[in-house]
């Protein structure tokens, strides 16, 4: 080391590099040295000696031989003795390190903790001390070394000895090199070592070795991705909630929107969400909202398509209806009807579609496109139900005709609810007294709706009566079941209506003029009678209409319901029924002091038209208004017969049901590929021997209660039942979607894009299905769109 110091001093003083001393005064300690370096050193006569922990003697020998060729004998002998003494000391340390290293390498995974009987005892003058086994549990780092025959610290030996850390000199030699075997003071020594800085550092280094830097970075990034996924789930679930409730996501300003405020509310209890939202604004932007809404809507529509495709016999029907939204865009609502595995008819809404035109060809093209996108074959279409518009139900160019050209088995049914609405309108026009009375009710409801002053006045007057106040409403020609409620509201509050109109008539405004005219009409007794007569018929038709709007209603059930209503109305066409109604009207007129019910003025026609015969003139008001009542009933009966029993495709369904009820299979079965004539005949014979039924609905109930094995015997009977149940009765499902459209696309949301509107409509209508959507699955689909999202969010496990 003296030669090295002199050499360094000469370099500092002169600024030149003199030749190195020949003898190897520099000892380099290398954990795992290279043989090539030592060989090169020996060949060139290098004076540097490399000391290698594992097998380094050859390097020193080569260095010594090369260095002694030109050395001075007197100097070399001293240097040789010094080098030999240093080598002996280093060799001793190396052997000790090799022993410790060998112990650790043999037990690299965990410390060596043998049974105490295999550990040397400590003999004192008066007793013998043993190593205690419970010390392993108290100090898990205890490692027994058979070489030193003592206890070492597993982490200190592994870290300080092998890694040569700078803190190795501060380590307790008893636990890092020599071994500890003083069992008398074991617990005190163990505790002191465990609390030492060198031990803590060794444990830290060992942990870092087990978890390297790249792994730590990867773990940190994985934690960030997990946090990002958590925040994304919050965003998706918030969008899901707002879409379910039909609420707007955006506001006039971004921070005023429901989505932003909902996330802000959630972030109060979620610090990670609050921090992430402050940094990442892209994932709450309108395009991302549209994408998430579309993923949610598509998930629901796909589940509907899968439900239809997984049917044992693929049969379905189409329900289509159109309307204009608040921005004037023509929206076509498309719905499916199918019979599920439990033989229960299901009607489901699949979306609102903007059509380029309202012709039957355009609507049929849109329907075919929807079927293609959902992978539902047109060949399995068995029914279609629309309203009576020419572009939908037209015989030659309507949508039903266009679809029938592609699939002749798609039977067309005119919507039963629309038919009943048309029948009700015709019935109300059949009698002048009923027509006028309903018109005054409509005008009264319109006045209440348009004039806030009259509405407040009527509410105040009605509140003073004993009965509960009911708001007045106008009649709507396109709403099916509002006429009865409007008539009842007037009749039950007739006195309040007269008082309000009389008080409002004193007002000098235009509203007062309208109120005065209505007061004169409502004070006539024939108005009261007209309302009572109309109510007798309208309530029956509205009950039937509500029945036809059910999703589970069938064609057979519709026919029986219509027959029941017809029988009821015909039963009212008699003297007793009319007399009862007439007496109720007279009693109300008398109690309110109104103008009595009189025969209207009869116009005498010219004799050149009537000839010599005299015209029949009613002798009493009762006789006159009885005729008007009968006119209304006769009109309803004729309309029911004409609109419901003269549809050609309904006759086909009736023949199919006759096959089910009688067991006589005819040629119509051959048109349906899913029906086998011979098998159906055999199965019907077996089925009828054990069961009694009168309709397809009763057959469905019987089969629903059968065991699976027994039900499998009648697969053809089940197919026929499905065919009878799959035909829709009305387009009420599409009409219900229009109600959702009015809630969603309001004046404030009139600029909503079509894709966003359709997605929100599907989510809002199918709330039960939306609740079952897996948010993680939606998030994963959102993430998989591009590499940037995969980098930010990773993958869900």
UniProtKB/TrEMBL annotation:
Q: Which InterPro entries match?
A: DUF4371 (IPR025398), HATC_C_dom (IPR008906), RNaseH-like_sf (IPR012337), Znf_TTF (IPR006580)
Q: Which residues form the TTF-type domain?
A: 127-226
Q: List compositional bias (Low complexity) regions by residue number.
A: 55-68
- SMART domains named in the record: ZnF_TTF (SM00597)
Which superkingdom? Eukaryota
Point to the regions of Acidic residues compositional bias: 84-96
Molecular function (GO) terms for this protein are: protein dimerization activity
**Looking at the record, which segments are called Disordered?**
54-98, 600-621
SUPFAM superfamilies in UniProt: Ribonuclease H-like
State the name under which the record lists this protein.
Zinc finger MYM-type protein 1-like
- Species source reads Carassius auratus
